[in-house]
Design a protein that fits this description.
twelve-stranded parallel sheet, disordered C terminus, 30% strand, seven-stranded parallel sheet
Length: 307
């Protein structure tokens, strides 16, 4: 029988334990992988046929549509930190990369099925829904101290949220690693505070005041409809740099009223301010005359005494 020195045996035990830990980590629910978005990573909003907007929607990142070409509602909507791409090569490639990411999400094995979202606190995993998924309250995603934690939600049909719903990521995670693969269309309810990347096979509707901060609205075949929303990819991979704050303008100082003809600012109407300035000017002139006459009188007295 083979015998090993004690030190060798200890090393073998440690090595075996390390391999077991690595295998357990690979099999753990947190082993899901965030799909790469390719060139679509720079887009905050991407539609398949049309993109329409009502109200002062703000988008930080690229805005695009392909293979359709219609983008309406900008202004009053605005795009910062990115460009608008309507049926150009950039939008076409982005749609291709969205399809690749969508298919990658399809292959992720489920760690939970038809798990309730409303009022829940969920850990990293892949949550699958055999039909639609609804959120009617607050959903908390607990990253458990892992900055690379990934949350994936996959629905066969619709994803909908009720008004005033919310999704938040806590304990060191990032909303940039939250993915919603929607088998048909997604509707984000009025004033819902949403996070993560929505990859919908058909369309995405953001009702009045809904936000995706941070995250993306990426519709493969249909339209993206917005109404006074805020969508930003700031802080996520592929996002442009944060805008530089504009220095505050110097505080304007009040101009001292001057007499007409001196080049000063016009004096206020109403008479009172003008009267004060005029009186002060006259009094100053009289004072100068009095001082001058006094000086002349004093000089005359000294001269007469010397004689």
């Amino acid at each position: 029988m083979l015998r090993f020195p004690r030190l060798t045996t200890l090393v073998l035990i440690v090595l075996f334990a390390t391999l077991l830990s690595a295998a357990a980590a690979m099999a753990s629910p947190g082993a899901q992988t965030a799909p790469g978005l390719g060139s679509a990573a720079s887009f905050a909003v991407l539609g398949g046929q049309t993109v329409t907007n009502t109200g002062p929607t703000t988008i930080f990142g690229d805005l695009g549509v392909s293979p359709g070409s219609a983008i309406t509602g900008f202004p009053p909507g605005s795009v910062t930190g990115g460009a608008t791409h309507a049926a150009d090569a950039v939008a076409l490639q982005a749609q291709s990369d969205v399809t690749t990411a969508y298919n990658a999400l399809t292959s992720e094995p489920c760690t939970g099925t038809n798990v309730a979202l409303s009022g829940a606190t969920l850990t990293p995993g892949v949550y699958c829904y055999t039909s639609s998924a609804q959120l009617t309250g607050a959903l908390t995603l607990d990253a458990q101290g892992n900055a690379a934690a990934v949350f994936i939600f996959k629905t066969v049909s619709e994803l909908t949220t009720a008004s005033n719903s919310s999704v938040s990521v806590i304990n060191g995670g990032t909303a940039c690693n939250v993915f919603w693969q929607v088998g048909s269309s997604a509707t984000v309810g009025t004033t819902t505070q949403f996070v993560g990347n929505i990859l919908a096979l058909t369309s995405i509707t953001l009702n009045t005041g809904a936000t995706i901060v941070p995250g993306r609205a990426l519709a493969r075949n249909g339209e993206v409809t917005m109404d006074s929303n805020n969508i930003t990819i700031l802080g996520c991979p592929g996002a442009p740099a944060a805008p530089t704050a504009t220095p505050a303008a110097p505080t304007a100082t009040s101009a001292v009223p001057r007499l007409p003809g001196t080049g000063g600012a016009p004096l206020e109407s109403g008479g009172f301010s003008w009267t004060l300035v005029l009186v002060a000017s006259v009094m100053g002139s009289l004072g100068a005359v009095v001082l001058g006459l006094s000086a002349l009188g004093l000089s005359a007295q000294v001269h007469s005494r010397r004689q």
